[in-house]
Structures are given as structure tokens and as C-alpha cells.
Amino acid sequence: MKNIKVISMIGLISVIWGYLWVSMKVGLQDIPPFFFTTLRLFIGALVLITVLIIRRKPILPQGNEWRRFFALGMLMCVGYYALCTYGIQFVDSGISSVLVYTMPIIVSILAHFFLNERLNWLKGFGLIVGAAGLATIIGPKLLHLSWNLALFGEIVIVVSAFFWSSANVYTKKIGRDHDKIKMTLWQLIDGGNHPPCDLPAERTS
């Protein structure tokens, strides 16, 4: 019974996460990418503020939390959310979701150096399989590279995956010292308050 619940939740999350890319693509037809990101972050922040109030937990950061939460906000919400949302304007939603999931590969490499989570043969094999899967999907495009908005968007999305990976590693390093809800809240607030100005762009159909 427990396994069925776990599998069901994984399936539900996969469906919701998969549909996210389609909804982002639709939303970007009418909303500038960085404003779109700010709306997402502040809506999430309002929900988490409500949760902290209900739980009677402190909302404001204390001591070194200001610096750490600000760094996480820049990595996760500006570096990942804002850049990824900007890049998806130029790239098909399916390819976008595949490119951003270079993240586990990047995380494994960063964790090896910064978290002392050493790469072993099993992890290495997993990375090779993952890289091979990505190559299978995007390999044909690599044979016909030309500089255009689609390629620019793909590069932006891969860069955003690097920031997402960096945020994950940093969260693993400091997360045990802080309340997870408050830490996430201030990532959203800091990130939503510092997105770059929206740039004019030609959107793909």
C-alpha cells in the first residue's frame, strides 16, 4: 500500500511538472518572461507566509540567514527560474524540459567537489546513461548547428540548469541549519525582487 502511494505521488508530480512547460509556453505569449517569473515567485511567497503565520513560526531571517537566503534567491530564482523562463520563449517546450534536466548531471559533478560526495562507478555509469539519453534526443540538432534564436534559447536554458544545480548543492550544504519553509520563502522574495528588466524578444510560435 505504501509503495502504491509513493508511485502514485511520483506519477502525479510527473504529470504536473510535465504540464508546467506547456503552461509556461502559453503564458509567455502574453506576459513578458521576467514579469512572469516575478508573479510566480510572489504568489508562492504569499502561500509560504500564510503557512508560517498559521504555524506561528518566525518570518524574518536572523543573523547569517539574510546572506545565505539572498545567495539562494539569486542562484535559484534569478539564475534558474528567470533565465529558464526567458530561454523557453525561443525553444519548444519539450526540448526545454529535456535541456534543463542536465541538472542532475551537473549536480553530481559539483557535489563531488563541494559536498565530498565522491563519484563512484555506479554514479559514473548513471551519468553516462543520462548523457547518452540527452544526446539521443538533441543529437540530430547538434549536427546542424547554426546561430539563431533557438540555439540562443537552448544555451540560456542550459546555463539556467547550472544555476539550479548550484542552488541544490548550496541548499544541501546549509539547509540543515535553517527552517526549510522560511528558507524557501526568502529565496522567492529575494529572487522575485531582483529579476532583470524584460528584454524585447521575438517569440517562437
Furnish the topology, listing elements before pairings:
Elements (H helix, E strand, L loop, with lengths): L1 H26 L5 H22 L10 H23 L5 H8 L2 H12 L6 H22 L6 H26 L5 H13 L13
Termini separation comes to: 44 Å
**Mean of all residue-level pLDDT scores:** 83
Q: Count of DSSP helices?
A: 8
Q: What is the helical fraction, as a range of percent?
A: over 70%
The largest sheet is: none
H-E string: HHHHHHHH
Categorize the overall geometry: globular
Q: What's the count of strands?
A: 0
What ranges have pLDDT less than 50 throughout 5 or more consecutive residues? 200-205
The structure class reads mainly alpha
Q: Report the sheet-strand fraction.
A: under 5%
Radius of gyration: 18 Å
Explained architecture:
With 205 residues, the protein is mostly helical. Helix content is 74%, strand content 0%. It has helices spanning 2-27, 33-54, 65-87, 93-100, 103-114, 121-142, 149-174, 180-192. Helix 2 packs antiparallel against helix 3 (65-87), helix 3 runs antiparallel to helix 7 (149-174) and helix 5 packs across helix 7 (149-174). It is globular, with a radius of gyration of 18 Å.
Short account of what is shown:
The chain is built from eight helices and no strands. With 205 residues, the protein is mostly helical.
Primary descriptors:
74% helix
